[in-house]
Design brief:
- It is built from 2 helices and 2 strands; from the N terminus they run H-E-E-H.
- With about 55 residues, it is of the alpha+beta class.
- The chain has a domain of about 40 residues.
- It has a two-stranded parallel ribbon.
- The mean pLDDT is about 90.
Amino acid sequence: MHPWDVDGASRAGLRTAWLCRTPRPYPATHRPADVTAASLPELADRLLTWRPPGAPP
């Protein structure tokens, strides 16, 4: 997956996630992912607890 995939999915109204597997930063020119993590276990934890902005706890 590439940053433009996340950007396109976000623009289409999908929720997105980004796994930071390299030290390269996510491009500022793209829409940010809803969830970002450095490892698969961390990503899984974040996805399980993620709530959209404005959603009740």
